[in-house]
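Hi,

Apologies if this is the wrong queue. I'm a grad student, and the batch job for Nucleotide sugar dehydrogenase from Actinocatenispora sera produced an output file that my downstream script rejects. I'm not sure whether the problem is my script or the file. Here is the sequence I used:
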Amino acid sequence: MAGLELALAVNGSLDDVRSRLVHRTAAPPGTEPLSVGVVGLGYVGLPTALGLYARGVPAIGVDVSAERLAAIRTGTVDLPDDDRSALATALDAGGLRLTDDPALLSDVDAVVVCVPTPVDRHRVPDTAALRAACTAVVEHARAGQTIVLTSTSYVGTTREMLIEPLQRRGLRVGVDVCVAFSPERIDPGVPAHRQRETPRLVGGETPRCSERAARLIGYLTDAVYAVSTPEAAELAKLYENVYRAVNLALANEIADICGHLALDPIEVTTAAATKPYGFLACFPGPGVGGHCIPCDPHYLLWQLRTAAHPAPLIEQAMTAIAGRPRRVVARAVELLADTGGSLRGARILVVGVSYKPGVRDLRGSSALDILAELARRGAEVHYHDPLVPDCTLPDGTRLLTETDPQGTDWDLVLIHTVHPGVEYGWAAGCPRVLDATYRFDLAPHRQLV
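Support response: The file is valid. Your script probably expects a header line. Output copied below for reference.
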């Protein structure tokens, strides 16, 4: 396809990839949606609305949280500076309207559902928000609309929550309305992974559904890859994050092996990554956080368990990921004991509590589990994170960030998340520095997890 080069290899062939790619630089007049409703204005929905506005498509943003809507109106949301400026422009120009009333969805030509799909404390999928959003979309759907679900969930979700309810309403999918699944691929805090340059999948209920959905998603990205069904797209998304989870669990295991053999896991991983094929570099850390990898694989595992279908590799990877914070705490205990200290009563400062550098997001952050476990075992815990003024531990304990920490104030400084542009040289003044990032070079005496 002219003007498009996509660096993908599927079983060694790009021909099949290109045959399923839709690449559009211009739209035939009168064939595109005139307005779009974006349901859910979180880390996916808000950038989606802004991406549409950037291409001249007005959007209505629907969110049930009055607090979230207020934060968007005031610009106090976690966005890059250029997106924050675009948000202000879109709101001022009326290109993005905000509401908590889903009835307004009947006025738009297309609807994109972008609500969160977390797991509960037992790692069981929590689909309450998704079901409520889809119910509202179905209730207010009208003939002529294109409806695209982007939220990651178990295989069959699009059919169960959208296609079948729409048909029960008397709307023929593929004729009266078009429905597809197109999983989000947002990577917060990573400027190199911009929405426009990231290919998207589309799986429609019919070829016409796929075509209409691809036209809509084409406003957000230059490359849309079509699969045969919504279910194929749903499993592809789960596979993406399962793949990442398995590799991260392996990276942490290799790091522990490197510690046993007195080797640097970053050096070893970087060396292995010089191989130009067959190896994806994943680096170890204090845990796996965020809104995707600690959650999404459990949607697949939950579905497979209901059918008594085993997935031992995925199960083991997720167990290892869940146990990583305890390994970090155990290493802190070892480091204190090796230098004549004790965890009980020790003043410990955790540096960085967001789940990744450059974001304020605490969802799934291993720092919260590490702080909670340290406190449970008798340590006096504090944290320093200039992006996160306060945080709440799983037991309800609320902590405030240490705004001006000094290394000499602590028995142990534990490096969890290092934000770009922040000064951390003070940490070298602490006699014990435990580096859970494996890359903190400002304290020569640091010890690795």
